[in-house]
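Morning!

This is the sequence you dropped in the shared folder:
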Amino acid sequence: MTKEVKFAATFARAIAGGDSRAAHKMLSDDLAVALAATDLSSQFESLAEDMGGVTGIGEPMVILQEWPDMSANDRAMVYVPLEGDDFSEAITVKISEIDDVLCISSIEWGRP
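The structure's back. Tokens below.
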């Protein structure tokens, strides 16, 4: 498991476990300014509600390591499946490395 996949899994566990502060600390500075911890929690809760609640987190996987508009700081796009009572969903996070520290620079809620 790559460090990017582990980082994405840690983020998913934090947000699914209700620790939006810990999840928020994993965001890039730009995303953290644009998305408050309470907004992060609200966005996750909306997705979780739509799927009947999150009952588990599946095995995260790297879906892209290169893409047309990636920046020099971008490392991978990681897909994290979320298991639910009614159906499954996912989040996709862009993992970047800024000043030798991993961070999440974008989040896509729901399956692509």
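Headline: The beta strands are 54-57, 61-64, 74-84, 89-98, 101-109.

More detail when I'm at my desk.
O.
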